[in-house]
Amino acid sequence: MSEVIVIGGGVVGLTSAWWLAEAGYRVTLVEREAEVGSMASYRNGGQLSYRYVSPLADAGVPLKALRWLFQPDGPLRFRLEADWRQWRWLAQFLGNCNAAANRRTTATLLQLGALSRQAMHDLSPQVPLAAFAWREAGKLVVYRSERLFEHAAALATVDAEVLTPAATALREPALAALQGDLAGGIFNPGEAVADCHAFCVKLMHRLQSHPNFKGVLHRDVTGIRTDRGKVAWLRTAAGPLRADHFVLAAGIQSRDLAASAGIYLPLYPLKGYSLTAPIRVGDVAPEISVTDFERKVLYARIGSQLRVAAMVDMVGADTRISQRRVQGLVRLAKEAMPSAADYDHADAWAGLRPATPGGAPIIGATRYGNFWLNVGHGPLGFTFACGSASLLAGMLRGAASPIALDGLTLRR
Question: What sequence ranges are listed for the domain FAD dependent oxidoreductase (predicted)?
Answer without folding.
Answer: 4-393
